[in-house]
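Re: that chain you flagged

S.,

Sorry for the slow reply, it's been a week of failed gels. I finally had a moment to sit down with the sequence you sent. For the record, here it is as I used it:
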Amino acid sequence: MPSPADFDEWSSVTLPGHLGIETLVAEHGLLVQRLEVAPHLMAPNGYLHGGTVIALADTAAGYGCVASLPEAASGFTTIELKANFTGTAREGAIRCEARMIHEGRTTQVWDATVTRESDHKVLAHVRVTQMVLYPTSAREAPDRSVNS
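Prediction finished late last night. Pasting the structure tokens below so you have them in one place:
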């Protein structure tokens, strides 16, 4: 299973790395990440952009899926994401805890809760459904990397 440092290294040149997402915990069924609030992550109204919150939640659920793939799987793709926003942040850091609530052979469902680190106020509840991918031929070896 990839370590938190593995996830951070893999994402260093992709969107999660550019946003500054850090992985704190990576284990089967659970992934925790954090993100420092910065001016480039804000909406023009001065509050945290909803896309920033979604990027954090989708990344946590996706990396959690990678850490929890069945042995024969070659990867995954997000097939549905739904969010309810209940707060915002203007400074400090936000954290996302993603927990797998359904582990099937072809799908996983994750609940990702985004909170402010300073007071643990919930900013968003995000449900993410992942389709588990398998090799299309017997000669294809599973690729367990985050890039699949």
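What I noticed first: Residues 4-133 form a domain with the Thiol Ester Dehydrase; Chain A fold (CATH 3.10.129.10).

Talk soon,
D.
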